[in-house]
Design goal:
By secondary structure, the chain is mainly alpha-helical. The protein is 98% helix and 0% strand. The protein is built from 1 helix and no strands.
């Protein structure tokens, strides 16, 4: 019985040593996993920060593109206004040219009428002198 008790005691002691070894291995594994989890959390935070920075850059680019689009729209409006002004100026120039031609024609008619009037006055003066 004593021998059986010692064998049992030796077996139990060996099992305790083995379980302590398993426990230490498990603790080391838990510590390693905990370290990996912390590293993963740090990596996730860094990735989240990078994502936020990229989003801010995208927002800035979107803002710049919108400003450029607005500027292009304004330039288009200005160009259309300039084209309208140019068309008006061309129309006025054409009208002015037409008016100049009319004025020249009227000036010629006036000269002709004045010449005719002068001739009529001369005839009238000559007729008065004869009378």
């Amino acid at each position: 019985a004593e021998r059986a008790a010692e064998t049992l005691k030796s077996t139990l002691e060996a099992q305790i040593v083995k379980e302590k070894g398993v426990s230490k291995t498990a603790q080391a594994s838990v510590a390693a996993l905990t370290k990996q989890v912390k590293e993963a959390e740090v990596a996730l935070e860094a990735a989240a920060a990078e994502i936020e920075e990229v989003k801010q850059q995208q927002d800035a680019v979107k803002g710049e593109l919108k400003a450029q689009a607005d500027a292009a729209k304004q330039l288009t409006k200005d160009l259309k206004a300039s084209e309208t002004s140019l068309e008006r100026a061309q129309k006025l120039a054409a009208e002015s040219s037409h008016h100049k031609a009319e004025a020249s024609s009227l000036q010629k008619q006036l000269s002709s009428v004045q010449a005719s009037l002068g001739a009529s006055e001369s005839k009238l003066t000559a007729a008065e002198e004869e009378a």
